[in-house]
Design brief:
Length: about 600
């Protein structure tokens, strides 16, 4: 088997910040409406009937009665309002304030606006191998790498002259950077971080999804002691570097130039190869639930109170949303009192009605040992949860268990780098040196399982756009390969051996079952085959409210030369080496490209 070998450069490691306390950016509050009918069915587009000025006065009166102080008040989806003091507060304080506000006779419901974290595992300092491999893209091997998603064989099915439908994949994350390895892959996105301090861009919400960095500096700690104080009333007071997490996720999904390949690498159109709709929801401290909810709705062109005007930044509606963030809680439409799980459930139900699939990371436990249940919103009905495996198909030690969704290789690099796992090689940016540069880096975490699954869903929609959300989930789960049940794999070291069968009391490195890691191991080629077989049987029709535009997102060339498989009759086929040639991926020397401005990432120009 030929192997794609990429020479890379190691990115300097950042200091490991102390685990900050769980935080919230105030509350999401819905006041009672004068028209009772408005509360019968919760709608994202709901607008209070008494108008904004009266709403502000009523909110101030209710907060005063319940001793809840706030300086910021802004409209948000479902006819609600976000209120907060201008900086993060402890989750415990926010919960106490929510309880008081719920008791006010003029309040219909209250949800804590928690700040949730990205699901990437910290990897310590250490150079990439001299020949770093994107092995996770390779075809599977049942003897050495059964945990891979079998992505390369799916590429051949998309590039055999088949007519494909444009598909938009939204990435809700820290934003994006202009890495040449992702040149032409972005559509014009949006920044939903409302706090200028946390957004690190000086202006809060705006139509610029560029990642301005999420690290906490000594200047932050000095200038904003009420925010970055490391106690129960602020974010961490330990300086930390920027994660550039959104760039890493984008590379897994859409990397396609200069030696960096992603799941949708062969998707190149005649006029544009844009495939990613970047939605910035996370800055310093993490992502607010309210920003995630609004980013989800905006991605799908679902109208809501306080939404950016479509005349400012129209975009094609996403059919797939990747969310590599998660918090604690249970997702249900029946949650009482209403909480983040209830709000997510309503949002996801709205997106499902529009044919939009949400793919979410199952979560990383405490980054060493996984938890017994998936994070929120990966545990919501109608969401495709993605948990993590190592390349051998065992559950990654850090990965949370999940009874729904799918499992996929997401790396299992331990803090001492003792496991013989390649991890996930993706795009990265090193701003810790005097001349910052883009380069490839190794990552791990269920954060990087999600974009693999999201990319497979996009492939399925490209060949069969009539698939509904339920059908997408059914197709991915039913086409999955069975979980690994034996340790008799070639090259497995004793330290890599799983510690028994996964269970609620065994959540570390273990053997998966369908009850603990989802339906099976993601298989891109089999999922695309399933979608092709369902042509003419789909149920989704785009609503009239969907934005339409010319084909400026992904659409591969209509014909590609094939090579004979050399065995028997049948049509031509492409092997792994030919697939690499298809997307222009060859062995490359280490790449170090200076940033245009070493001190500040540049905005991404709209396509």
């Amino acid at each position: 088997m030929a192997t794609l070998m990429l020479h890379g450069v190691a990115l300097a490691a950042e200091a490991v910040p102390a685990s900050p306390p769980r935080m919230a950016m105030g509350l999401i509050v819905k006041l009672k409406d004068a028209k009772p009918a408005s509360v019968v069915r919760l709608k994202a587009s709901a607008v209070p009937s008494d108008g904004a000025p009266r709403q502000r006065q009523r909110m101030a009166d209710a907060a005063r009665r319940k001793r809840v102080s706030f300086l910021v008040s802004r409209e948000t989806a479902f006819g609600a309002t976000v209120i907060h003091p201008g900086y993060p507060i402890s989750l415990s304080q926010a919960k106490a304030e929510a309880e008081r506000m719920r008791a006010d006779p003029d309040v219909e419901w209250v949800v804590v606006n928690e700040i949730v974290r990205k699901q990437a595992v910290y990897i310590p300092a250490g150079p990439l191998p001299s020949t770093a491999s994107q092995s996770w893209l390779q075809p599977i091997s049942v003897t050495t790498q059964p945990g891979f998603a079998n992505i390369a064989p799916a590429w051949a099915k998309l590039t055999d002259g088949r007519t494909l439908t444009p598909v938009v994949v939204a990435i809700l994350d820290t934003g994006i950077l202009a890495d040449p390895a992702l040149s032409g892959r972005y559509m014009a996105g949006y920044d939903f971080i409302y706090s200028a301090v946390l957004a690190n861009d000086g202006d809060g919400i705006d139509p610029d999804a560029t990642d301005r960095g999420d690290g906490i500096t000594t200047q932050d700690i000095s200038s904003y002691p009420g925010v970055f104080d490391g106690t129960s009333d602020g974010c961490s007071n330990v300086a930390s570097g920027n994660s550039w997490h959104g760039l890493e996720i984008a590379g897994v999904l859409g990397g396609n130039l200069d030696g960096m390949a992603g799941v949708l690498a062969p998707m190149r159109g005649e006029t544009s190869s844009a495939v990613i709709l970047p939605v910035r929801v996370s800055g310093k401290c993490g992502a607010e639930v309210s920003s995630i909810i609004e980013g989800m709705l905006w991605s799908a062109n679902v109208p809501y109170q306080g939404a950016p005007s479509t005349t400012v930044n129209p975009h094609p509606a996403a059919r797939v949303i990747n969310l590599s963030f998660g918090g604690e809680g249970v997702c249900s439409l029946a949650n009482s009192p209403h909480d983040a799980g209830w709000l997510y459930a309503n949002t996801i139900a709205t997106l499902k009605s529009q044919g939009v699939l949400v793919v979410a990371s199952a979560g990383n436990g405490d980054d060493t040992v996984g938890y017994a249940a998936a994070s929120l919103p990966a545990n919501c009905a109608g969401v495709l949860a993605a948990t993590g495996l190592d390349m051998r198909g065992y559950k990654a030690g850090y990965a949370n268990l999940t009874s729904q969704g799918i499992a996929v290789a997401a790396g299992d690099l331990k803090s001492d780098r003792s496991f013989a796992d390649d991890g996930i090689v993706t795009t990265g940016y090193d701003d810790t040196v005097s001349t910052p540069f883009f380069g490839m880096r190794t990552v791990a975490g269920t954060s990087f399982a999600a974009p693999q699954a999201a990319g497979v869903a996009a492939m399925m929609l490209a060949v069969n756009p009539s698939l509904s959300v339920d059908q997408l989930i059914q197709g991915i789960e039913s086409s999955a390969r069975p979980h690994v049940t034996s340790a008799n794999l070639a090259g497995v070291l004793s330290i890599d051996q799983p510690q028994g069968v996964c269970s609620s009391t065994n959540t570390s490195h273990c053997y998966c079952t369908t009850a603990t890691c989802g339906a099976g191991i993601l298989d891109a080629a089999q999922a695309v085959d399933w979608a092709i077989a369902q042509q003419g049987l789909g149920t989704f029709t785009a609503p009239a409210t969907f934005y339409t535009s010319p084909n400026v997102y992904f659409a591969p060339p209509r014909s590609v030369a094939t090579t004979s498989s050399g065995g028997g009759g049948g049509g031509g086929s492409m092997g792994w080496p030919e697939l690499l040639g298809l997307v222009g991926l060859t062995a490359l020397a280490a790449r170090q490209r200076c940033h245009a401005n070493p001190t500040r990432p540049q905005p991404i120009p709209a396509p």
